[in-house]
Amino acid sequence: MSQSSAAYVEGAVDYSTKIPNNVGLANDARVLKALEQWHPGYIDWWNTMGPEGFQTADVYLRTAVSIDPKGWAQFGYVKMPEYRWGVLLAPQDQQRQVNFGASRGEAAWQDVPGEHRASLRRLIVIQGDTEPASVEQQRHLGKTAPSLYDMRNLFQINVEEGRHLWAMVYLLHKYFGRDGREEADGLLQRRSGDPDKPRMLGAFNEATPDWLSLFMFTFFTDRDGKMQLESLAQSGFDPMSRTCRFMLTEEAHHMFVGETGVGRVIERTCEAMKAAGIEDPYDINKVRALGVIDLPTIQKKANLHFSLSLDLFGSEVSTNAANFYNAGLKGRFMETKIEDDHALTTSTYPVLKLVDGQIRMVDEPALTALNMRLRDDYVKDCQGGVNRWNKVFEKYGVKFQLTLPSVAFNRAIGQFGDIEASPEGKQLSQTEWMRLRDQWLPSKDDGAFIDSLMLPCWERGKYANWIAPPKAGIDSKPGDFEYVKIEEA
Ligand code: BYC
What we know:
By secondary structure, this protein is mainly alpha-helical. About 45% of the residues lie in helices and about 5% in strands. It is built from twelve helices and seven strands. The protein has helices spanning about 30-50, 115-135, 150-175, 175-190, 210-230, 240-275, 285-290, 295-310, 320-325, 370-395, 430-440, 445-455, and strands spanning about 60-65, 75-80, 350-355, 360-365, 420, 425-430, 485. The strands form three sheets. It has a three-stranded antiparallel sheet. It has a two-stranded antiparallel ribbon with strand order 3-4. Strands 5-6 form a two-stranded antiparallel ribbon. Helix 2 packs parallel to helix 4 and helix 5 runs antiparallel to helix 10 (about 370-395). Residues about 1-10 have low confidence and may be disordered. Bound molecules: benzoyl coenzyme A. Benzoyl coenzyme A binds near residues 123 and 201.
């Protein structure tokens, strides 16, 4: 595992440098020095903005030790500030080409084409900005963790988001000279929710006030991360593609935490309702009296996080997206599996638009409709998860189904950014919206109720009353495994 730079081989991770990597940093003095100079600022950011109150606790974390599909995860106790954040790229394919856009068929670029420099830098900075933002959003959640298992999963996600920041910062330092250095510094300066220096994208300035929000965020917003990374993994700029491909392997666990987290909340509520003989899921007071989260409130949280995440796809019709595609920088989900000309100069794509005040499907040039297409792929992916949640209701015989609201509901960006609509997609006046809003989105009271349940449950093998235990432990560990050693914190 650990090896000297002389023995550096593609795929293996070199732990001899301060920054573990599989990109030969030991032989790249300029970039190594730049990253070593950036490192203290990062650690400072982690110590002040990372998980609050647990920086000295031993946490059972996985660390990437090789990019080999079987061997990349090694589990062990680590204090988070000592986690080995590394620069890890998926293996290079010498035959890889630019697979779409005007340069289709050229050998994939190992350096940044001059004419695409500004666009590429912007894509990298936006991607990079989301990673520390999510750590900032989640920093206070450790204190109310419903179990050591959940706490460990939160911290695993946090350190990996930190690593994803490293991944983007490596690209900036390696390929963008002085501008790259400035952008890398900027990534440590912006702060989620700070009105003076906010993070770049809307959803990353929202609060993550409780654990149900965390699970919804990792289901819906990390899934946007998956779609965006899949599209960037198609990039003709090969280092970007390789970076994103490796990030995707980690992203899968984050979405697992979200999907199973919400699933476990649903399971526990259904179980408690059954035991108490409550048949009506809308009898909210009775359900809440059991100390579990009522199902309509779970729906409201899903409405909120789904709509915030849809905004992350940008405008349905976007010349930015067309330019990124034409330039070979950002492709479609599963680009190489799609059978068409991969140029999109003549085809069209159906886009939901607001036409004369009505929500209608309109054919638009496929090139400018790429954000819409990616969003459609995303909605399908979300629906799959919602269907799996709905199976839990069937299992318990509870008459309730979760649904995804209309894409026009609660939007700030794109076609529906300036209108109000119900979850069914019916347009509403401002007054109607203000009157009905709390039926569809978490109200202050809902927030206060959920907050009242957020009490720490840190006994080994125990879970807070509002959430069911997981089906299996992490790394096949037994139910009472001490995932975080709190007494050392
Ligand atoms: N908030 O043509 P438009 C993740 C801006 S999540 C604020 O509509 P475009 C993760 C846009 O920047 C994935 N501003 O959209 C998940 C542009 O500004 P300029 C993150 C927004 O550019 C969980 C203007 O509006 N990665 O990894 O086609 C935890 C007009 O833009 C928003 C990426 O997003 C917004 N929501 O698409 C941790 C991939 N939306 O240029 C991590 C990289 C748009 O006029 N980013 N604007 O100043 C992109 O591909 C694109 O920039 C976007 C926007 C998809 C975000």
